[in-house]
Write a structure and sequence with these properties.
OB fold (Dihydrolipoamide Acetyltransferase, E2P); 3 helices; 39% helix; elongated
Length: 202
């Protein structure tokens, strides 16, 4: 029974880690080079990674007008973000200002000769295969490409999750000691008495 439990716990930990990595906010230092809206087919597997149809950017067909922010990282590699409202559903960023964010991003666009570095807060993943992009939440200018940003919010969220798990575990332990174990013992005693009765031992 040891290996199935280890495999189950490992798979569960991997799924929880992937979920948190996708959902928690991340910040990148980049240079914006272009903003545009592109008609994109959303459906099937990649539909899970885009906004819901009632979040303000979706249309009734499989094609959506997706706002994109094209950037260049300090090492020269490109990175493209989408800019969609999140609405009131998951993840709970309550973002309704995608039009304003698009205007801010356009205003902060710069060239390689005169770069304006910005910090883009986002969630999600970039996959060329699935045609998905991380969703930009905020954009703000920074002093340069070497600015260090400490993930205070992520630490607070992870500490909160750890506290919830710890308290839930303690509550379950007490429930198990006070309710489940006495009930199991009671059933075990009744079962033993029933076996004795069936065998004629009274």
């Amino acid at each position: 029974m040891r290996w199935p439990r280890i495999i189950f716990i490992s798979i569960l930990a991997l799924l929880i880690g992937a979920f948190l990595h996708y959902t928690l906010p991340q910040r990148d230092i980049v240079r914006i080079v272009n903003v545009e809206s592109r008609l994109t087919e959303v459906g099937g597997l990649n539909g899970w990674f885009y906004a819901q149809r009632d979040s303000g950017t979706a249309q009734s067909t499989g094609m959506r007008d997706i706002r994109l922010i094209s950037t260049i990282r300090p090492d020269g590699r490109p990175l493209v973000y989408r800019n969609e409202d999140t609405g009131l559903l998951w993840p709970p960023y309550f973002k309704f200002d995608s039009e304003d964010l698009q205007a801010e991003a356009a205003n902060l666009a710069s060239t390689e000769a005169t770069p304006q570095w910005v910090a883009i807060t986002h969630y999600g993943w970039r996959s060329n295969l699935l045609s998905i992009y991380p969703n930009a939440v905020t954009v703000r200018p920074v002093a340069g490409p070497d600015v260090s940003l400490f993930p205070w919010l992520n630490i607070v969220i992870l500490l909160g999750i750890a506290l919830v798990i710890f308290f839930a575990w303690r509550i379950w332990e007490r429930f198990e000691d006070r309710v489940i174990e006495p009930m199991v013992d009671w059933f075990a005693v009744r079962w033993a008495k029933m076996k004795d009765w069936a065998a004629g031992r009274r």
